[in-house]
C-alpha cells in the first residue's frame, strides 16, 4: 500500500512516521521544505486545559508521547512543564473558569481554580489586583516545534519515508468510482492508494482537487520576543490574560515569547501571499497590555524581534479528520493546536488508514459535514 501525504509540517510528518512505522510505503509532498509553513512559526504550547472531550483526548495522548520524545526519537525538544496559567479580569470569565475546571477534572486533567493572590505563588510578578480568578495545571508546558519536527523527520526517513520538497501537488487522480489512484505533482505522477491532505493553510486548495469544499480559513497570528524590565524566571508558566487577549511564556536569558490578537477584523489570508512581519504598533500594544498583567513589563521592556504565522481555523476550532472519499483523507483545521496534537493525530490517521477507525477520538464528530448538519463542537478555551 502506498500513501501520499500532502504537507510536510508537523502534522504531515507525524502522520508519515506513524504510517511507515506500521510498514506502509509513504511519500510526503510539499511545495516548500519541511516545517517552513505554520510549524516553524508556532509558539510550541502543549496543554490539556481544554473543555472539549476531543481536544482533551488528543492532548492527553500527545502528552504521553512528548514525555518520552527525547528517549524514543533521540531528540531534545526543550520540553518544559511549568504549566499554563489562565487569568480572568471579568467575573463572567471567572465563572466560566470554574465550569472549565469541573469539566477538565472529570477528564482527569489536574487543573485548579485559584484566587489571584494564590496565583502569585506560581507567577511571582503577577499584578493580582487586576484579576478576579485564575486556573492552573502543572502538567501543561511547551517545547520547540522545529526540534520536534526534526525528530519525527529523522525517524520517518529512517523508516523509508520519501520526502519530496519543492514539489507542488497539482491534482488528485481518481477512477470512475472516485477512488484515489495517483497524485499529480510538479515533478510527475505518483501512484497512491491514499492521498492525505495535511496541507494546513493550503488545505482548501487540496480538497478542491476532489471537488470538496471545506471550511478551513487561514488566519494570521503574531508572536514577539521581548526583553522585559525584570527577567522572567524559567519556572513561570505560560500565562494567558484571557480578557486582554495576550499571553507570554519564558524564553532564554529571562526574555519572553509573547503574543496577542487585537484586530477588529480577522480576514482570511492568502497562504501564498501574506505579511510575515509584525508592526511596531502591534508590539507597543502588546507591551502596554502585558504591563497591566505582570510587573515584569513596563516602559523599558524591549522588543527584540517578531514574526507572524497562519492558523488553519475551522468554525468550531476543532480539526477535520475524515476519509472524505475513498482513499482521500483530510487531517486539517487544527486552529492553532496542530503542534501540540500532532503525536495523537499521527496515530489517529494511521488507525484510519489501517483499519478504518480509531479508539482515540470519535471520528464521527470530526467530519466536515458537521458544519452543514449543525453539529459543531464547542471549545471554551481558545488562545489566539
Write a concise keyword list for the protein shown above.
D-Amino Acid Oxidase, Chain A, domain 2; FAD/NAD(P)-binding domain; alpha/beta; 6-stranded mixed sheet; 8-stranded mixed sheet; 384 residues; 28% helix
CATH structural architecture of the largest domain:
3-Layer(bba) Sandwich
Estimate the global geometry from the Cα principal axes: globular
Oligomeric category: single chain
Written as H for each helix and E for each strand, in order along the chain, the element string is EHEEHEHEHEEHEEEEEHEEEEHEEEHH
By DSSP (H or I, 4+ residues per run), the number of helices equals 9
Using the CA coordinates, give the radius of gyration: 21 Å
CATH fold name of the largest domain: FAD/NAD(P)-binding domain
Unreliable residue runs:
none
Strand content: 25-35%
Give the CATH class of the largest domain: Alpha Beta
What portion of residues is helical?
25-40%
Q: Main sheet: which strands, in order across?
A: 5-6-4-14-15-16-13-17
Total beta-strand segments:
19
Description:
This protein has nine helices and 19 strands. It has 384 residues and is of the alpha/beta class. It has two domains: 2-66 and 145-216 and 315-373, FAD/NAD(P)-binding domain, CATH 3.50.50.60; 84-138 and 217-312, D-Amino Acid Oxidase, Chain A, domain 2, CATH 3.30.9. An eight-stranded mixed β-sheet has the order 5-6-4-14-15-16-13-17, with helices on both faces. A six-stranded mixed β-sheet has the order 8-2-1-12-19-18. The two termini are 39 Å apart.
Amino acid at each position: 500500500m502506498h500513501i501520499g501525504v500532502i504537507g510536510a509540517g508537523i502534522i504531515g510528518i507525524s502522520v508519515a512516521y506513524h504510517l511507515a512505522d506500521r510498514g506502509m510505503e509513504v511519500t510526503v509532498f510539499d511545495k516548500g521544505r519541511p516545517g517552513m509553513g505554520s510549524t516553524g512559526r508556532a509558539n510550541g504550547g502543549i496543554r490539556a486545559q481544554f473543555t472539549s472531550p476531543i481536544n482533551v483526548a488528543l492532548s492527553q495522548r500527545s502528552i504521553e508521547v512528548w514525555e518520552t520524545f527525547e528517549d524514543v526519537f533521540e531528540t531534545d525538544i526543550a520540553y518544559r512543564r511549568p504549566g499554563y496559567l489562565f487569568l480572568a479580569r471579568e467575573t463572567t470569565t471567572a465563572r466560566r473558569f470554574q465550569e472549565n475546571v469541573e469539566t477538565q477534572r472529570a477528564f482527569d486533567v489536574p487543573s485548579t481554580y485559584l484566587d489571584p493572590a494564590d496565583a502569585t505563588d506560581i507567577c511571582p510578578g503577577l499584578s493580582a489586583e487586576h484579576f478576579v480568578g485564575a486556573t492552573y495545571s502543572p502538567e501543561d508546558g511547551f517545547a520547540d516545534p522545529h526540534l520536534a519536527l526534526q525528530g519525527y523527520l529523522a525517524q520517518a526517513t529512517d523508516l523509508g519515508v520519501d520526502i519530496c520538497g519543492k514539489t507542488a501537488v497539482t491534482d488528485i487522480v481518481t477512477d470512475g468510482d472516485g477512488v484515489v489512484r495517483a497524485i499529480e505533482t510538479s515533478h510527475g505522477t505518483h501512484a497512491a492508494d491514499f492521498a492525505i491532505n495535511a496541507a494546513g493553510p493550503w488545505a482548501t486548495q487540496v480538497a478542491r482537487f476532489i471537488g470538496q469544499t471545506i471550511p478551513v480559513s487561514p488566519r494570521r497570528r503574531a508572536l514577539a520576543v521581548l526583553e522585559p524590565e525584570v527577567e522572567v524566571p524559567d519556572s513561570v508558566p505560560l500565562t494567558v490574560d484571557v480578557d486582554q487577549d495576550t499571553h507570554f511564556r519564558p524564553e532564554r536569558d529571562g526574555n519572553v515569547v509573547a503574543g496577542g490578537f487585537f484586530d477588529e477584523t480577522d480576514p482570511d489570508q492568502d497562504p501564498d501571499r501574506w505579511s510575515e512581519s509584525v508592526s511596531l504598533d502591534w508590539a507597543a500594544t502588546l507591551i502596554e497590555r502585558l504591563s497591566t498583567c505582570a510587573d515584569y513589563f513596563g516602559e523599558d521592556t524591549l522588543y527584540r524581534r517578531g514574526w507572524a504565522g497562519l492558523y488553519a481555523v475551522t468554525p468550531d476550532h476543532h480539526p477535520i479528520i475524515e476519509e472524505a472519499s475513498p482513499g482521500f483523507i483530510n487531517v486539517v483545521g487544527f486552529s492553532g493546536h496542530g503542534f501540540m496534537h500532532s503525536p495523537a493525530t499521527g496515530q489517529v490517521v494511521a488507525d484510519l488508514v489501517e483499519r478504518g477507525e480509531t479508539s482515540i477520538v470519535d471520528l464521527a464528530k470530526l467530519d466536515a459535514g458537521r458544519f452543514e448538519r449543525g453539529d459543531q463542537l464547542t471549545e471554551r478555551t481558545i488562545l489566539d
